[in-house]
Each structure stands twice: as structure tokens, then as C-alpha cells.
Amino acid sequence: MLQDIRQNVQGTAAKVVVWVIVVSFALFGIESILLGGSSSGVAEVNGEEISPMEVQQVVNTQQRQLISMFGENIDPAMLDEQRLSNQALQSIIGRRLLVQSATEMNLAVSDTEMGRLISGMEQFQINGQFSPELYKSTLAQAGYTPASFKQTLQQDILVNQLRSGLPGSEFSTPAERELAARIVAEQRDIRYLTVPLAAVEAGVSVSDEEIAAYYNANESSFYSDESVTLSYIELRASDFTAPVDEDDLLAMYEQEKSGYQYQTENRVSHILLTQGEDESDADYAARIADVQKQLNEGGDFAALAESASDDIGSASAGGDLGYSAGDAFPEAMEEAIASLELNTVSEPVATDAGTHFIVVTERREGEAPSFAEMRPELEQRVQERESQAALLSTVETLRDLAFNAQSLAGPATELELEVRTSDPVTRNQAEGLFANPALLAAAFSEDVLEMGHNSEVFELAPDHFVALRVEEHREPELQPLESVRDEIAVTLRDQQARAAVARIAEQAVARLRAGGSVEAVAEALGFEWQVEIGAQRDSGMLNPALADAAFALRAPPEGERVADYTMTPTGDALVYEVSRVAPGKLGELPAARQAQISQLVDGEHGVLVQEEFRRELREQADITVY
Amino acid sequence: MEDYRSEEEQVEALKRWWDDNGRSTLAGIALALVGAFGWQGWQEYSQGQNEAASDLYQELLEAAAGAGQNPAQLGVAERLAAQIKTDYSGSAYAIFAALQAARLAVQEGDLETAESELRWVLAEADSGSDSALVAQQRLARVVASQGDTEGALALLEVTGENPYAASYAMAEGDILLSAGRDSEALAAYELARQVASEGTQVPPLTALEQKIASLKPAEPREISVAVSDPLPAVAQEAEAPADAEEETP
């Protein structure tokens, strides 16, 4: 063997191999050779794996956040693992790219800086002081180990430094601020009158012919929703409440009385003498007798415990062992404790630990409430327990019976339950029992709707179960004119009223363009008018529809006016006139507004740089999703 | 193949081999050790340098965050930036520090300093790197703000694929619009908006939208109604009491 190696090492190729091994061990350690190449990730970003656990952690966090936002009745589709894990994976990839880019730029975080940051975080502090215990427990609650938390924090800092370096060092030059102010803070004098929809609504009338014509022209929008009528069995624990046997209550009372909180508690001190390994029986007995003698002579128990007791734990506390409700100490001790008078020293008591002298220093007599006092509470508890048990056993039987039955009536009769019938339920039912997403999904599922099977028995809450089947399925059908007449009348009236408002608005604009003032035109037509001098796009003083329209309009030449109108979403018309247009001047704006404009400009540059940087990273990267 | 008849012969052969090759073997091992430890040492040294630069840069960021309100903080930030640039030149932190210094200078209205910081970044950073491309775009904006429109526009011309096309286009739009070249500005802004809209994480760009809107004003709508046309019945009813009120006093 040795000889073979010696001979083979002579070859140049072999020497090269040996040196490659030597050097690689020296540089990278053994693990790079033994552990390379195994793969279990869900994706790879530039050769770095993303593990399924990592994705799962993000998905879990996301689910918790969604549930706390939307409550327990959340649509299960929103919690869909597949959808969430795709999102999670994309965000992890994005972050991984940033971390890699930071690492490639040799960005780093020192341990001192990490320590400074962690100890400065308020959630780890008690009274302004960093607490290592709080640190560990807070991390554990959030699902981190100190190592994984440090790594996450370190990556956060790296990504933050990278961000501060490129998009975060964005600015706005004086010229850009002037330019932005010119447009963002532009002022226009706007006079306008309002033609409210309400003013014309009353006068609009819709004829039967118009309704019929509209019905015929828009038939497709008058189909009823697809619906199902369900028969269902609903089980609640409260339906199973039965009278309680008095004997049961008494038995429970007895059990309750002997329960922990009604026990007599004794506070106990002791002096323990333990035979040493090289101590003879005689010496040990003498030691016990000595302590006994001192106690008999009225020696102070606490002082003696401190000097003589072999129980290091209690000796310095005067032998104090704390409270026992009869189950804390060995049986021999508890027996002695139970029979002891308060503040009297016991005879020596032998246990496995050695010989004890015991004193009861405090006694709390436990007293149980009377049966009459406890009865209502006990009765409720027994009833709840029994009705819940009855409910669950009925549910189990129902599950078996309903699975095979051709209807719900059979199982219901057998179990003496009631089958109820629902009102028609639509696919997007929003009210009542069947708005529950699980029940709704079941009612329209292939199994229940098309095959006509009973649904499974759904648990809506621990004390609330429902099983259902479809009795009647109504496809969408054209509703007769009579049942949609009112609906059409409302639509048509609204349309006509809006058209009337628009005609009045056009008339008003025509009058304004013919030279009338807003005041005169408004008065002639009988509407309110208002004026906003020096209005700005986003000052919030104008109706948003008016602000959009009035600032989008080409500015009139100096000294002239331009008139137009716009409709609000609610159907009012705003007839307006723009007279003076003044570009915004940065220097004339209040300091806060100037700061706001400067932030607006550098913010938008920063957003673009950030987005383009990110996109560039993604395009350059080698990303594989398995 | 050689054959050794006894242990002694084997030992003898080994000794001979050692006499011939021992020195070079030891030298080889020593060299490998020196190489390995040297490499590790170098790694540790440069990691230490990076961490020291990082600590200073964190301090710089903190000082810069307070610089708007507190002139003393501004001084601290400027001093730290200068220190990082000299002590750790060649590191990404030096580039970032210069970019931060440029930002602070623009904030203070000191465009000359901003220009020289940005030119420093252009000289230091690898050409074509993110930092260089971003610095060049910012330099153009600073130059434009100093009044040199043509110089600024020249800086914004990048040959070949530019990953920062949207930010360049937005800067160009601002420069052109400030110079009164409205139609060219509109084209640049629209390019910026188009590139930005391809992104997934871009929030609405209010100022950009308003600039585009101001360059594409809406014309007043045509009105077909004449002043003399009758009003819809309802409105005339509304008109009547208004007239009546006027006549009462």
C-alpha cells in the first residue's frame, strides 16, 4: 500500500493532484469538498439557493398578517399557498439580489456596529437597558434564533447602505425646483357655477315605451343570478343542552373542593442533616442529638438552620422552603407538617434526604365555597361539556350517514334532527349563513351541485356544524319586464337627468363665451356660483373633477377668459371660467411648500433610479426557479 | 517497478529520497502555508478595512439625516465624507460618500462643490457601473442648473444600452423644459413615463404627470347649443323664482 502510493506520487500528474488537494484544504476547509453540489432549494439566484423553509417563513408571516387584517372569515383564496409562495419567492429573489450586489461591492457591517444597533433597539430594552433575556425571548417568539436574526439584520443594513448610496443620495437642483414649482404650484383664478342633478331630477319623466325599448335593447343585463336552494342540517352545541343529574353535580363539587386552590397551604422551614460519606453512624446520631438539644433549649430555629443545616439551598433563608399544599415534599414530611402546630419544632423526621427538623411558620386554611354557591357554575360546566360531547358524537354519526344517503331527510330522521330549507343562494352571496366561504364553495362544487351528493359536515366553529345539499338549481334566466321595470326606470331617469344637466351646462358655457359673467349667468339660470382666486392643482379647495378639468385646459391669453364645464361622478355639472393663470414661483411659496416640492422632485428621481437599478440586477442575474 | 528485499533497504531508499528531495518538499510546504495564511490574512485585513469604512459611513448617514436642521451635523457629515474618500479610496463607500457629499452640497446651494464631487465619482468609479451612470446623470442636472444647457445635454448622451434610460430621460425633460424647448421636453418626459410604466414597483409620479399635462393642454370643448336655444323644462322652472326674487324689491 505505502509502496503503491510512493510510486504513484512520482508522476507529475499525481503531484499536481496532491498539491491541488493540499492547497484547497488549506484555503477552503474540508466542507467545500465534502458538501458541495447537493441541491434542495426552490430557486437559485446567481448560484445561491433559496430554501423552501425560507419561502415558507415569508408565506406564514404573510398569512398571519392577512388574517389579522381581514379576520377569520377571510376568503380562503387569499390565503392560497401557491399564490402567496410565488409572491414570497419573488420578494426573496429581489432581496437576495440586493444583498449579493452589496456583497460584491464589498459592503460590510462590523460586529461593534451590530452590537450597537441591537442593544439600541427598544423592543429589547427594559427601563432603557438592554436585556439579554428579553432579547432571546422576543426573538424566539418571532421565530428567529440569535444567529438568524443577526444575519437578517446584517442584510438589512447592507441593503440600506446600498439604497442610501444610489437612490438615497438623490437631490433636486435649484433649476429643477423652480421648474417643478412653476407647474405644481401654478395658480388659476376660477369662477364656477354648479348645476346640481337634484334640480332636474324631479322634472324628468320616463314613459313605458322608453322602458320597454331599453329592456329590449339591453336584455343581456337582465338575467337573474344563478342560484341554488339548499336543504341543510345545522347543529349547535346549545341544541344538545340537557338537564344535569344532581349526583353528577355533587360528585363534581367533591372533586372541586379537594382541588388545588381550596387546599390548606403550609409555609415550611426545616433543618436538614445528611450523613456525610465518611461520617460514622454514631457521629451522625450525635449531630442529630446536638441539634435536637439546642432546639429543646429554645435555640433560634433560623439561626440554627443557617449554621447546622446541610440543605445549602434553604440554610441561608433560615431554612425556609416556601409553601406546600400537601404535595411538595416527601410523604413522611407532609405527614409531620399536617399534624404540626404552628411554630412548633417537630421531632426528627427521616426521609431519603436525611433527617429533618420541621417548623410550620405560616398556615393558610383553605375553605371551599358551599355547594349552593358553586352549583350554577358547576351546572353550566357540566352542561357545556355534555352538550359538546353529544354534539360531537351526533356529528360523527351524521358524517357516516350523510356520506351514503341520497338525501338529508333520512339521516335527519334517524338522528332526530331538523332539515331546513334556505332562501335562494347566489354564487356571490354576501349575507346569512351561506355567505360563509366554505359552505358557498361546497354548494357550488361539482360534487354537490352537479352530482347531487350531500356535502360533508362542515365545522364552522367548535360548537357549530352544517351539512347541506342542493334541492333546486336555477340557471340565470331573463327576468320579466315587470320585475325589472323599477330598476330600468331609475337608470333611465338618471341618464335623462344627466343629459338635461349637460344641456343646461352647455347653455351656460355658451352664455359665458358670449361675454356673460359667471355671476350673471348663474343668477339668470338660478344656480349657486363660487369663486376661487389663485387656486392650485392639489390645494384641496376645489372639487377634484373641477381641479383636473380647469388645470388641464389650455391657459387663455393674458387678460382673456376661457369657459368650459365638467361633470362630477355624482352627475352635477360644474360650469367654470378660468381667467388668470400665474406660473408658480418657488421663492414666493411658504418654506414648508418649498420643502415639499423639493422632496417631490428628488423623490421621483430616486424612485426611477431605484427601479432601474433593481431591473438591471434582475436582468444581469442568473435566476432559476425549480 | 523496483522491489525492496528488506525493511533496511526500504528505509535506505526513503533516506536517499529525502536527501535528494527533502529540501524542496519542505520549501513547498512552507510556501503553501505562507500562501494560505497570507491569503487568509489579506482577507481578514480587507474585511477589517471594509468594516471600518462601513462604520464611518453609518456615522455619515446619521449626520446627513440631521444636516437639514442642524448646521453642526452638516459639518460633521462633510468631514466624514472627506475622510472616507481619502482613507478608503477605491471602496464603494468612498463613492457613496462622495454621492452623499454632492447631495448635501446641492441642498446647501453649493453647485461647484456638488459638481466636483460628482466629477470625482466619475473619475473613480468603473465606467459603465451603476454609480458612474447615476453620477453622470446627476452631474448633467447640476451643470444645467448652473446655466450650461448644452453641456448638460451632452452629458446625458450615452452610447449603447443605458439601464438608466428613464432617469436620464426625466433629467433631459427638465433641462429642455427649463430652456423653453417644450416639444423636445414632452418627448423626453413621455419616454421617461413609458420606461417607468414597465416597472412593477413604481408609484405614481405626480410631478412628471403634471409636467406632461401642462405640455399637452386640453382645448375647450365645442358647444353646439346657442344662447337663444330653449333650456330643458326643469331648468326653466328653476329660473322663474330667481327672476321673481329680483323683481320683488
From TrEMBL, chain A:
One Gene Ontology term, aspect cellular component: plasma membrane
Organism (species): Parahaliea aestuarii
Topological category with respect to the lipid bilayer: Single-pass type II membrane protein
Family annotation (InterPro entries): PPIase_dom_sf, PPIase_PpiC, PPIase_PpiC_CS, PpiD_chaperone, Trigger_fact/SurA_dom_sf
GO MF entries: peptidyl-prolyl cis-trans isomerase activity
Lineage: Bacteria, Pseudomonadati, Pseudomonadota, Gammaproteobacteria, Cellvibrionales
Designated name of the protein: Periplasmic chaperone PpiD
Family: Belongs to the PpiD chaperone family.
Compartments it resides in: Cell inner membrane
Domain of life the protein comes from: Bacteria
Membrane-spanning intervals of the chain: 12-30
Keyword entries, A-Z: Cell inner membrane, Cell membrane, Chaperone, Isomerase, Membrane, Rotamase, Transmembrane, Transmembrane helix
Domain PpiC: 263-362
From TrEMBL, chain B:
Name of the protein in question: Ancillary SecYEG translocon subunit
Membrane topology type: Single-pass type II membrane protein
Region feature Disordered, mapped onto this chain: 227-249
Localisation: Cell membrane
GO MF: protein-containing complex binding
Record organism: Parahaliea aestuarii
Location, primary (coarse class): membrane
Bias kind Low complexity: ranges: 230-239
